[in-house]
Amino acid sequence: MARTPRPVARSWQPDAALLDGLTIAAVALDPDGTVVYANATAVDLFGSPFDRLVDADARTRLFDEPERGAVDQVLKLLARTGSWTGELTMLAGGTSPVAMRTSWSPLGGDVEGGALVLIEGTEESSDAYAPGQPLGSRLRRLAEVTSELLAAADVEAVAGVVTDHMMKAAGATAASLSLMVDDETMALMALRGGFEDAASRWATYSVHSNIPTAESVRTGRPVLVRRGEVEQRYPDLGGLADGTGSVLCLPLAVAGGRVLGAVSLSFPGRRALSEAENLFLKLLADTCALTLERVEAQGAARDREAKLAFLAETSAKLSSDLDYEATLTAVAEAAVPWFADWCAIALAEDGLLRTITVAHTHPERIALVRELQERYPNDPATDQGGYGVLRSGRSQLVPELTDELLAAVARDEEHLELMRALNLASGLSCPLKVGDRTFGVITWVAGEGGRRFSEDDLAFGEDLAQRAAIAIDNAQLHSQVRTAALELQRAVLPDSLPEVAGWSTSVQYHPAGRTDAGGDFYDVVPLEDGRLAMFVGDVMGRGVQAASVMAQMRSAIRTLVAVDPTPEVVLAGMDRVFDALHLEQLVTMVYAVADPARHLLQVINAGHPPPVLIAADGHIEVLEHPSTLILGVGGGERAVRSAELRPGDRLLLYTDGLIERRGEDADRSMARLITALRTARSDAPDDWLSSVVEELRDPTRDDDVAALLVALDPLAP
């Protein structure tokens, strides 16, 4: 038989003699599918003494008619995968169709985009399991794929095995994995070697779609479609069927007949499955299904554990903070990204939902969420979405937000593009509800993270929403009580101190960092004959009760002062007030009367920090008391402390919030006060007092501060 002369060596041939000496057929194709090289074995297998292989079109010269599209498919595949091995029907002797095993690898150099094809005949050894024989090779492949699947920890890893190793083991040019996301919907989890637009077009699709994978899932049986039948049987594939050879879809079924999804394998030409191949591919599919079931069970266990931990952490947070807006922000952020790609919480105000917080896996996309809500707000009359949940008090679960559904609800093209940009794939909305009152909605959206909300997620969402609703309701009730307390406090405390000839007065009042009303109170009362009465007190506790007692204290003191301002008389009267009203709060106060005509200051103390007298010459005296009985305890006496008061002298009265710090003893606190008084430089009373308070106040702002400064005019007679 005449042999084709060896061509001139090309850059892709490291050694032409090596290829010439192979005992298996080797041909080289350029990117157009033209044969540019054939070794002697190839000439023996495909040639004849009357024609040549080199320069012939491989499609018509080497392949049977139904397989001719395989050349273009495999050449395209090599650019993505680097190699392909599979069985194709070729023309032995140029005329006889015979199934042969082929191995394709890309060429470089001056034929970049071409391929070197090695072809083996199909004669079986007497030992079917011998190395190099089809069944033995497949068993090794099966062992390799099984090993990979056993090590897979998530769906992504399984998808990688299916679309890489399984594709190669089956000799396919493309592979895909689709899984059920609910009873009606499938999702394309991975695709390798297929059309580029298939991933977006078939990201999710109905199980009733007229395509091979959906049919395999519905029937629970393999589906094999040979070349030429694909477009006719499955018109829904559209242009994706162009040039497609055979397609094989295998259901992924587990015990009980439950089908998890399907694997799809595409072959470049006609494909007929032998009994050995059927068994081999079924074992691959069953191994894949068992792995997915294991991954699903492990994921469900991790998910339940994460949900329980999240609920415990969230419950602790909700019960420890009455600032519900800050708490809900923390709850929304904590649920992202492990449970959802983004979360929004809205409360009802006058029948409309106001978004309190939005959290997103990608914080930069929060602006897109807000744009969607602002430009395309939900219709309050609709039964869908947040308003439907708000009116009905029932949750709404949308396991799969398909592109068709998004297109159906979009108001215009921009609306649709905005929803697509946010990767809306699955949604869950739960009511914030206490009793029969629904006052808000919490919504989770899943997208690119791959999660699809299920009935288990619905139960978790409703549990979390119920806990959040109770916390919000408590916080709102607390807010109403707090507002009443603050209003009461503002009504009781003087708007400004009285202007009295010969005196300068200044006050600094700072509520604690917390939002409750406090119990600090103060006032200055001008008396007849030029005297001045003043007091500062502290009701222990916070909230409405403390503010109410504070109001009673201030009102009672002013009444007693109007009758008789003598210090011991006023404090004795306050003890009687406590007895009459059966007050349980602890109250401390210091009361003083200044008489400039007699240059006399009289101070009485009821368990309160001692006032400080700052003389005009800079001398500082702490007006300690031998007896400082707290109001209402009875059974003792209080001493009146007298001191000389001269023009230019200043008296500072204050609450313990000014000087006390956690873990610090009283002596150290008082030493800090004296130091601050000595170093304050401003002559203006307001500025001087402000600088002292700023220097002394605890940075934690854990307690209210009230500081009252009364100064006798330097020019007073």
Question: What do you see in this structure?
Answer:
The chain is α+β, with helices and mostly antiparallel strands and about 725 residues long. It has 20 helices and 26 strands. A six-stranded antiparallel beta sheet has the order 8-7-6-11-10-9, sandwiched between helices. Strands 2-1-5-4-3 form a five-stranded antiparallel beta sheet. The N and C termini lie far apart (about 140 Å). The model is unreliable at about 1-10 and about 125-135 (pLDDT under 50).
In short:
The protein is of the alpha+beta class and 717 residues long. The protein has 20 helices and 26 strands.
Salient structural properties:
single chain, 717 residues, alpha+beta, 20 helices, 24% strand, disordered N terminus
Instruction: Give the radius of gyration.
Output: 44 Å
Instruction: Give the amount of beta strand, in percent.
Output: 15-25%
Helix content: 25-40%
Number of helices: 20
Biggest beta sheet attributes: 6 strands, antiparallel
Poorly predicted runs of 5 or more residues: 1-8, 123-133
Main β-sheet, spatial strand arrangement? 8-7-6-11-10-9
Oligomeric composition of the shown chains: single chain
Overall pLDDT metric: 80
Terminal CA distance reads 141 Å
What structural class results from the helix and strand content? alpha+beta
SSE inventory with pairings:
Layout: H1 16-20, E1 25-29, E2 35-38, H2 40-46, H3 58-62, H4 70-81, E3 84-92, E4 96-106, E5 115-120, H5 134-151, H6 155-170, E6 174-180, E7 185-192, H7 198-201, E8 204-206, H8 212-219, E9 223-225, H9 230-233, E10 246-253, E11 259-267, H10 275-320, H11 324-334, E12 342-349, E13 352-360, H12 366-375, H13 385-392, E14 396-398, H14 403-409, H15 413-421, E15 426-434, E16 437-446, H16 455-492, E17 503-510, E18 520-526, E19 532-539, H17 543-563, H18 567-581, E20 587-595, E21 600-606, E22 612-614, E23 620-622, E24 640-644, E25 650-654, H19 666-679, H20 685-696, E26 705-712
Antiparallel strand pairs: 1-2, 1-5, 3-4, 4-5, 6-7, 6-11, 7-8, 9-10, 10-11, 12-13, 12-16, 14-15, 15-16, 17-26, 18-19, 19-20, 20-21, 21-24, 22-23, 22-25, 25-26
Helix pairs in contact: 5-6, 5-10, 6-10, 10-11, 10-16, 16-17, 17-18
